[in-house]
Design goal:
It is a single chain. The protein is α+β, with helices and mostly antiparallel strands and 223 residues long. It folds into two domains: 62 residues; 139 residues, Immunoglobulin-like, CATH 2.60.40. It contains five helices and 13 strands. A hairpin with a 5-residue loop joins strand 1 and strand 2. Helix 4 packs parallel to helix 5. The longest helix is centred in the middle third of the chain and has 16 residues.
Length: 223
């Protein structure tokens, strides 16, 4: 079976970040590519490429994202591959690249303990073009001491992040860093402004430095 890099190299750039390669329990492979939603997504990848993937034993799923989410993921997803945030997960996400949450569900993020202290920041990009800075709260720095875990969003020890309208395909970004990452930003801002700031921060930080990222597409739906 071809490797992930070989399969990903067959796909053209879509402006929504790199594809994701999933290994199925039955041994098959699913290539999830992201493109701008609407008619553009339907023609983002030529049928000949899909046929070539099938010849190599891989199925293709082209998922449409809003232009705002595409622009942020185009920056965040490569960085999350180069600087993975070990120990970060969405509760109940399993092996899927996209997490499905329905109206009334909670967005719960877990950060496993590590040997070094870190600062944690959580940003939620909405498909309508806004980015909500969920954590840390105003006047806080998100400091997580060495050896301690963190569970956010279920309301047990902190805020409850409950899913509601508008429903669609959004993006969660978790940042782990040696210095506070989320103190110089408003509670909400335009996706374009956030994307620019994130890109500048990444460019100013060495890849082998302490800045680590986790990103995941979240699909929200009414019940």
């Amino acid at each position: 079976m071809p490797g992930a890099a070989t399969l990903a190299a067959l796909l053209p750039p879509t402006g929504c970040g790199p594809p994701e390669i999933q290994r199925r329990e039955d041994g098959g492979v699913l290539v999830v590519a992201y493109a701008s939603s609407g008619p553009v997504a339907d023609v983002a990848i030529a049928p000949s490429i899909e046929a070539e993937l099938a010849r190599r034993g891989a199925d293709l799923d082209v998922a449409g994202l809003s232009p705002a989410i595409c622009a942020i993921r185009d920056v965040a997803a490569p960085a999350a591959i180069e600087r993975p945030a070990a120990g970060v997960s969405l509760a109940g996400e399993g092996n899927d690249s996209r997490v499905l949450l329905r109206d009334g569900d909670k967005l719960v993020i877990e950060v496993a303990p590590a040997s070094e202290p870190r600062y944690v920041a959580v940003d939620y990009a909405v498909h309508t073009g806004e980015v909500w800075h969920l954590y840390p709260g105003p006047g806080e720095d998100g400091f997580l001491p060495a050896g301690q875990s963190l569970r956010l969003g279920d309301g047990a020890d902190g805020p409850a992040w409950t899913v509601g309208a508008p429903f669609g395909e959004d993006l969660v970004l978790v940042t782990l860093s040696a210095e506070p990452f989320g103190m110089d930003q408003p509670a909400e801002e335009a996706a374009e402004t956030f994307q620019t700031r994130l890109q500048r921060r990444l460019q100013a930080t060495p890849v082998d430095g302490t800045l680590r990222l986790f990103e995941r597409v979240v699909v929200t739906q009414a019940k």
